[in-house]
């Protein structure tokens, strides 16, 4: 199975949403292309008939037998370059998280697939399935670059207009993960950290030269243990506070607002941090910030897994977990921009849907009893709380 990065688990808002949610005290230059739209989905250009939208596929991936030391071309691998250091960071993050998940699971191992793109770059997909602790865990990295078709660029911008750019050189790299435990008292976790560049000569049509960072880590339990939620959010705040005390409240609200299931009028989970199009700070500072956030995943999550993975549960608890997993599916398939773009452009289904749980449940007109533990979770998803 070859999946790529910023792929399935990635959730990015539209430009209108980003502008409406950005705090006024910051002036952010909005990039021309949202990262998640392109990075993770190796897209197919086959001979079958496509609809006009699906004809925007970029490239088909090629399976490889092993991962290369770097996916970057010669000259881009220096530790002095942001590209080189970001690739090193995301691959080390993938290794550390996979090792920690395997240790917590106690026996199951990740299946690894490596793929490359003829136009440049590639990725490493790792999936653990049907383990003792984890129902499904995916941790993927991707480093891709080349030229983006004009139609794909216009689709990424979320509209057409009179401006018709030419082919756009781009670079995109990231690590993306979704971890679904079996025990209803153990929470699901999603994290994603990414870096994107576009480049075009000044005298040529296309996207302007820009760079930006995006990402976040969010927490989706079926049951609330307040000490667990506070621990998770405290680790996010500690990472943010090392760089700017405004980051945690700003990115916590952004996370609450983004992971919103409009047709349910509730959030997917209990939040965390989320940011995108971030380029209004020093590039070195933001690289260090993304690195710190990625390094915080294990201390934020694994202590909770160790505490809850063996908690006794009933069939009722499992059914409620499956209902909340259904909400996870709804958000990813209806609102996740990267997922919906991949489905419309002929992307590889295994890559696009790697974030989804193995099992989920829907019941007609299901409502938890007021005051129950299930009701408390739903209330917190409808009315986001300040946990710290």
UniProtKB/TrEMBL annotation:
One Gene Ontology term of the molecular function aspect: coproporphyrinogen oxidase activity
Gene Ontology annotations for the cellular component aspect, listed alphabetically: chloroplast stroma; cytoplasm
Keyword ATP-binding: no
Catalytic activity, EC: 1.3.3.3
A Pfam match: Coprogen_oxidas
The UniProt record lists the keyword Transmembrane helix: no
GO terms under biological process: chlorophyll biosynthetic process; protoporphyrinogen IX biosynthetic process
Transmembrane segments: none
Pathway, per record: Porphyrin-containing compound metabolism; protoporphyrin-IX biosynthesis; protoporphyrinogen-IX from coproporphyrinogen-III (O2 route): step 1/1
Oligomeric form and interacting partners: Homodimer.
Name of protein: coproporphyrinogen oxidase
């Amino acid at each position: 199975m070859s999946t790529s990065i910023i792929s399935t688990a990635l959730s990015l808002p539209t430009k209108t949403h980003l502008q409406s949610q950005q705090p006024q005290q910051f002036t952010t230059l909005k990039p021309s292309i949202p990262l998640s739209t392109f990075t993770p989905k190796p897209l197919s250009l086959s001979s079958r008939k496509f609809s006009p939208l699906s004809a925007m596929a970029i490239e088909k991936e090629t399976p490889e037998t092993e991962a290369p030391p770097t996916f970057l071309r010669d000259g881009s691998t220096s530790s002095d370059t942001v590209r080189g250091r970001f690739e090193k960071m995301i691959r080390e993050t993938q290794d550390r998280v996979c090792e920690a998940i395997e240790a917590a699971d106690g026996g199951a191992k990740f299946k690894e697939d490596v793929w490359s793109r003829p136009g440049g770059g590639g990725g490493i997909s790792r999936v653990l399935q049907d383990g003792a602790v984890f129902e499904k865990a995916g941790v993927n990295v991707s480093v891709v670059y080349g030229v983006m078709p004009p139609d794909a660029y216009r689709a990424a911008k979320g509209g057409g207009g009179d401006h018709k750019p030419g082919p756009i050189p781009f670079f995109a790299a990231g690590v993306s993960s979704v971890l679904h435990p079996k025990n209803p008292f153990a929470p699901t976790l999603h994290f994603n950290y990414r870096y994107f560049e576009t480049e075009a000569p000044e005298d040529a049509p296309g996207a302007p030269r820009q760079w930006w960072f995006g990402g976040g880590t969010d927490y989706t339990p079926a049951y609330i243990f307040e000490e667990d939620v506070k621990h998770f959010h405290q680790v996010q705040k500690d990472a943010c506070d090392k760089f700017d005390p405004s980051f945690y409240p700003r990115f916590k609200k952004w996370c609450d607002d983004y992971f919103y299931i409009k047709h349910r009028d509730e959030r997917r989970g209990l939040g965390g941090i989320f940011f995108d199009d971030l380029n209004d700070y020093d590039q070195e500072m933001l690289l260090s910030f993304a690195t710190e956030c990625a390094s915080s995943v294990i201390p934020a999550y694994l202590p909770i897994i160790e505490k809850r993975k063996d908690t006794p549960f009933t069939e009722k608890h499992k059914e409620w977990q499956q209902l909340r997993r259904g909400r996870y599916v709804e958000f990813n398939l209806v609102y996740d921009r990267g997922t919906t773009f991949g489905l419309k452009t002929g992307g590889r289904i295994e890559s696009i849907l790697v974030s989804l749980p193995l099992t989920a449940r829907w019941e007609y007109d299901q409502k938890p009893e007021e005051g129950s533990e299930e009701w408390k979770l739903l209330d917190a998803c409808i009315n986001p709380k300040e946990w710290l």
